[in-house]
């Protein structure tokens, strides 16, 4: 921009900037808060993780994945530490220039950032009649450089944050976004935070590509003041000079430039609406060409033709927001940092791993649910078979305790076998202890009863009917009837009863003695009781084993939920 031309917008901009140092005082108190908040978050997550690790049994198959989770968390901490480091560097940088307007020239590789930065430095130098001081930024430190220009080039050229300080303005030229060297892109993205104004450049060759709009929306989300610029809005015309055809650089046709501006504006707006961002904060793009401005600097209205006047007019309209942003920049950076910490933990690093862990746990819980009934049924079936022999043994001994403890032993042995068979794949050696220490109440209420007969023995002389001494009996079976014993008892009763009737009628001298005799053991009532009991006992015992296994899952689940909550409420 030549001094001779009238440049109201550019001059208006310079006037504002001249008063810049009167308004700036970064808020130091708010700035410090982020560190203590992040420290509290890290400590809480660390303690949550320790609690999770101590809750996982060494035999738990989830042990390995939980170990992996601890590793992920520790990586997150390292990344956060790195970000804090970046933030401190930015704040340090920002503080160093707290009384100047920091403009960052930002955008995709090859957008024309360095070329534009050089153009601006030259224009400022000319108007302010002062020398720029070039520097590079290294870990927040300003290292003065001997260069008097930023390097421009067709291949990716800029790999550090370089800048020039002139008057009340600090101009930063950043490495290209979506750079082949990812680090460079990150460096630039990280640095936009310390700037008060972002000039967002996109080449007119193909302006506002999706990835570029993504980066633009990220900056706007951070509530940065941003002016979109479509650079390189020129083309070559062929002209005839002194009878020779020559290539002449001209601006792209106005209607083409307007169409590009509108297209970028509309697509950005759509993206913002989709994301629910504040559309009103968006500024329409301005198109310009540095090459055209440089090559035609003699033209009276070059600032207007090249798009520069329009650019400064746009900058002037956002100037008040720039000042407001400057005042709260440090606090905003700290807030943005904390938001970023949460987003990163939730969307990128920690939550996906926690959710994966929760899925693993849920899958195991479902496995318990789905196997529980099957295990109960198989166990009940096996118990019916095995208990039959045990009842016989216990009946012979007439020992209910023997029966009760025998059932307990068989039950836990069979249960252990079934758990091993059905759940080992999922729970591995945890199943071994699952059937230990179960409460199995097999008290037997019913008694084994002797199976007895009662009969009357007749003693005396002159008894008719041929019974001498003891002999004639009226019998009745005492106790329950049991198969097997039945025939014996039945026969006995029949035989004895026949003789008894005649004897009694014939002689009063006969002496009657009532007698009882054990002829077997009745275990029917006990067997019925046991079978009925098993029906409710077995599912209860299986349920206990399932709950034992759940104790290896639920505390983990609670602790993982707690970690998520720690981040959510941060
Ligand atoms: N036609 C035209 N080309 C331009 C203009 N500005 C820059 N260029 C060209 O675009 C290419 C890249 O320019 P740079 O200024 O180095 O771009 P950059 O954005 O700094 O690139 P990186 O630092 O690599 O990200 C160079 O070949 C420039 O000559 C312009 O206004 N018009
Ligand atoms: Mg560059």
Topology:
Layout: H1 8-18, H2 28-55, H3 63-96, E1 101-107, H4 113-128, E2 133-138, E3 141-144, E4 161-166, E5 169-173, H5 182-192, E6 197-203, H6 210-221, E7 226-231, E8 234-241, E9 244-251, H7 254-275, E10 286-287, H8 290-295, H9 302-305, H10 308-327, H11 329-348, H12 350-397, H13 400-427, H14 430-434, E11 449-459, E12 476-478, H15 485-506, E13 511-522, H16 524-550, H17 554-568
Parallel strand pairs: 1-5, 1-6, 6-7, 7-10
Antiparallel strand pairs: 2-3, 2-4, 4-5, 8-9, 11-12, 11-13
Helix pairs in contact: 1-10, 2-3, 2-11, 2-17, 3-11, 3-12, 6-7, 12-13, 12-16, 12-17
This protein binds guanosine-5'-triphosphate (GTP) and magnesium ion.
Using brief descriptors, characterize the structure shown:
eight-stranded mixed beta sheet, alpha/beta, Rossmann fold, three-stranded antiparallel beta sheet, 570 residues, 13 strands, 58% helix, binds guanosine-5'-triphosphate, single chain, binds magnesium ion
Account of the 3D structure:
The model is unreliable at 462-507 (pLDDT under 50). The chain has an eight-stranded mixed β-sheet, with helices on both faces. Helix 1 (8-18) packs parallel to helix 10 (308-327). The protein has helices at 8-18, 28-55, 63-96, 113-128, 182-192, 210-221, 254-275, 290-295, 302-305, 308-327, 329-348, 350-397, 400-427, 430-434, 485-506, 524-550, 554-568; strands at residues 101-107, 133-138, 141-144, 161-166, 169-173, 197-203, 226-231, 234-241, 244-251, 286-287, 449-459, 476-478, 511-522. 58% of the residues lie in helices and 15% in strands. It is rod-shaped and about 165 Å long. With 570 residues, it is an alpha/beta fold. It has three domains: 100-327, Rossmann fold (3-Layer(aba) Sandwich), CATH 3.40.50; 370-445 and 526-568, no CATH class; 449-522, no CATH class. Bound molecules: guanosine-5'-triphosphate and magnesium ion.
């Amino acid at each position: 921009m030549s001094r001779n031309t009238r440049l109201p917008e550019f001059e208006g901009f310079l006037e504002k900037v001249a008063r810049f140092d009167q308004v700036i005082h970064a808020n130091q108190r708010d700035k410090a808060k982020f560190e203590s908040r992040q420290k509290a978050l890290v400590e809480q997550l660390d303690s949550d993780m320790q609690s999770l690790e101590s809750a996982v049994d060494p035999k738990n198959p989830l042990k390995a994945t939980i170990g992996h989770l601890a590793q992920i968390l520790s990586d997150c901490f390292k990344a956060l530490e790195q970000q804090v480091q970046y933030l401190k560097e930015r704040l340090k940088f920002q503080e160093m220039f707290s009384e100047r307007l920091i403009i960052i020239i930002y955008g995709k590789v090859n957008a024309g950032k360095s070329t534009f930065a050089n153009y601006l430095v030259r224009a400022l130098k000319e108007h302010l009649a002062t020398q720029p001081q070039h520097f590079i930024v290294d870990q927040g430190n300003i290292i003065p450089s001997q260069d008097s220009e930023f390097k421009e080039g067709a291949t990716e050229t800029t790999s550090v944050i370089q800048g020039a300080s002139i008057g009340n303005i600090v101009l930063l030229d950043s490495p290209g976004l979506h750079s082949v060297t990812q680090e460079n892109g990150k460096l630039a993205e990280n640095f936009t935070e310390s700037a008060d104004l972002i000039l967002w450049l996109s080449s007119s060759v193909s302006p506002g590509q999706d990835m570029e709009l993504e980066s633009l929306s990220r900056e706007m989300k951070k509530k940065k003041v941003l002016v979109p610029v479509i650079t390189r809005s020129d083309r070559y015309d062929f002209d005839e000079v002194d009878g020779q055809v020559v290539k002449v650089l001209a601006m792209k046709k106005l209607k083409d430039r307007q169409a590009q501006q509108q297209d970028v504006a509309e697509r950005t707006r759509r993206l913002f609406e989709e994301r629910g961002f504040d559309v009103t904060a968006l500024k329409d793009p301005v198109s310009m060409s540095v090459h055209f401005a440089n090559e035609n600097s003699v033209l009276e209205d070059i600032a207007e033709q090249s798009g520069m006047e329009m650019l400064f007019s746009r900058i002037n309209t956002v100037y008040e927001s720039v000042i407001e942003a400057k005042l709260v920049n440090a606090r905003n950076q700290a807030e943005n940092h904390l938001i970023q910490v949460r987003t990163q933990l939730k969307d990128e690093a920690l939550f996906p791993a926690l959710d994966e862990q929760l899925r693993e746990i849920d899958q195991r819980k479902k496995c318990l649910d789905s196997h529980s009934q099957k295990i109960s049924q198989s166990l009940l079936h096996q118990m019916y078979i095995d208990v039959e022999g045990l009842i016989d043994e216990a009946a012979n001994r007439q020992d209910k305790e023997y029966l009760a403890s025998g059932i307990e032993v068989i039950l836990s042995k069979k249960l252990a076998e079934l758990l091993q068979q059905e759940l080992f794949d999922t729970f591995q050696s945890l199943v071994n202890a699952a059937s230990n220490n179960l409460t199995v109440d097999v008290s037997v209420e019913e008694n084994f009863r002797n199976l007895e007969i009662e009969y009357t023995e007749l003693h005396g002389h002159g008894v008719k009917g041929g019974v001498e001494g003891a002999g004639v009996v009226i019998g009745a079976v005492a106790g329950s009837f049991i198969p097997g014993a039945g025939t014996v008892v039945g026969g006995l009763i029949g035989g004895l009863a026949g003789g008894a009737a005649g004897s009694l009628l014939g002689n009063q001298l006969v002496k009657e003695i009532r007698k009882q005799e054990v002829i077997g053991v009745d275990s029917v009532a006990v067997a019925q009781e046991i079978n009925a009991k098993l029906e409710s006992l077995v599912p209860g015992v299986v349920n206990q084993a399932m709950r034992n296994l759940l104790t290896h899952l639920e505390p983990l689940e609670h602790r993982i939920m707690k970690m998520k909550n720690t981040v959510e409420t941060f």
